[in-house]
Amino acid sequence: IVFWFMKKTLPHIVKLLVELPVLFAEEIPLVDGVSASNLSLTKHQCASLLAAAFFCANTADCQPLPADNYPTLVNFDSWLQSPSYSSKAKLFMLMNYFERSRLEIKDDKFEIHRIKLTKRPSLASWVKNSSPLTKFTVCNEGGITESNGCNVLHVDFANEYIGGG
């Protein structure tokens, strides 16, 4: 496994890092925590950004934008330095991602849409609301990418509060 990584996967990660300035010839728009915004990246661009984070190359002096535009620089140094099982599992997942991208790098789009509510609804207003929900279907097979892209919504409820917290 180590030989394969050093011979195949690591050179691919280096290549992704070197391609970063070409893949991002223009400024990378930031999706901030204040305003509604949209961001569309290719999977190739995402892999290149992850390569920069893997090599901990995201420093204030290596950014395509001024350092004050980056409130938090994403690097995987904590994963690389930690002896914990969870950090090792995350690195294993990342190595698997890089190996899969080496085998087939796609220019499919990865989109982020940040929607901001103008006024935070109260719990009482949600409880009193009698509007019916829009009809929807939950599919337990396949992923969002296999859904033909028609009328598809992916929602991440990773936080207790809409918009983070």
Biggest β-sheet, characterized?
A: 2 strands, antiparallel
What is the C-alpha radius of gyration, as a whole number of Å?
Answer: 19 Å
Q: Class by helix and strand content?
A: mainly alpha
Share of residues in helices = 25-40%
Summarize the structure.
The chain is 39% helix and 7% strand. The protein is built from five helices and two strands, in the order αβαααβα. It has a two-stranded antiparallel ribbon.
Give keywords.
single chain; 165 residues; mainly alpha; two-stranded antiparallel sheet; 5 helices; elongated
Structure in words:
- It is built from five helices and two strands; from the N terminus they run H-E-H-H-H-E-H.
- The relative contact order is 0.14.
- The longest helix is centred in the first third of the chain and has 22 residues.
- The protein is elongated and about 60 Å long.
- Strands 1-2 form a two-stranded antiparallel sheet.
- Helix 1 crosses helix 2 and helix 1 crosses helix 4.
- By secondary structure, it is mainly alpha-helical.
- The model has no long low-confidence stretch (mean pLDDT 76).
